[in-house]
Amino acid sequence: MPRILLLRHAPSLTGGRLAGRRDVDADVSDRAAFDWMRKRIGTVAQTISSPARRCVKTAENLGLPPDNMSDSLWEQHYGSWEGMKYRDLPDLGPLSAADLAQHCPAGGESFLDMSARVLPELQLIRQDTLIVAHAGTVRAALSQVVGHAALSFAVAPLSLTIMRRDGDVWSVEAVNITGP
Fold first, then answer.
1. Can you tell me the distance from the alpha carbon of 6 to that of 14, in angstroms, rounded to the nearest whole number?
2. Hey, which residues does 131 pair with through a beta bridge?
């Protein structure tokens, strides 16, 4: 039963704007947090990363440079919302989790679209693996257990979510573990 450790990248340097698929840098200056997280991760057989600079830099600063990078692990594409200041993002009003999962910003993809590219990548894992990716990637993995309710999970920067997979059966060991 492989253990899949999903690590959200370190804080994005976005200038208060939605990053999504934009390739922005990460703040990797908190050595204590990186040291703590490296110990918490322990031993893994491989590290797979989104090709986003913020993910690769996070993995490298943990001393776990990616063995592989996968475009499937990129964050959700927010289309016309990408690069917008957070305060200027449209208010969608009250949406059910199912409606939110289907919502697609103009020129982007929905959570369901993103999950459809992320989940097959996770199904390929056969050994203990660290995945360094994005909040959306973590929520896509969690959706294997809780469905659309995964959109309600907080996924802090440099937080760890641990899952196990036995064939097609997923279980959640921990969510949103952060350091000191």
1. 22
2. 6, 48
pLDDT in tens, the chain (180 residues): 899 999 999 999 999 999 999 999 999 999 999 999 999 999 999 999 999 999 999 999 999 999 999 999 999 999 999 999 999 999 999 999 999 999 999 999 999 999 999 999 999 999 999 999 999 999 999 999 999 999 999 999 999 999 999 988 999 999 999 988
What is this structure's pTM?
A: 0.95
- Given a contact cutoff of 8 angstroms between Cβ atoms, the answer to whether 45 and 126 are in contact is no
What's domain 3-85+94-177's superfamily in CATH?
Answer: Phosphoglycerate mutase-like (3.40.50.1240)
d(CA 20, CA 127): 29
